[in-house]
Amino acid sequence: MAVPATRRASTTILNQRITPSILDPMRLVFSLLCCLFAGPALAQDLPIFDAHIHYNRSAWESLSPETVLFILNRAGVDRALVSSTPDDGTLLLHETAPGRIVPFLRPYRSDADVAAWTRDPSVLDYVEERLERGIYRGIGEFHLGPGDAASPVVVGIHRMAARQGLFLHAHTDDVAVEELL
Question: Structure pTM?
Answer without folding.
Answer: 0.74
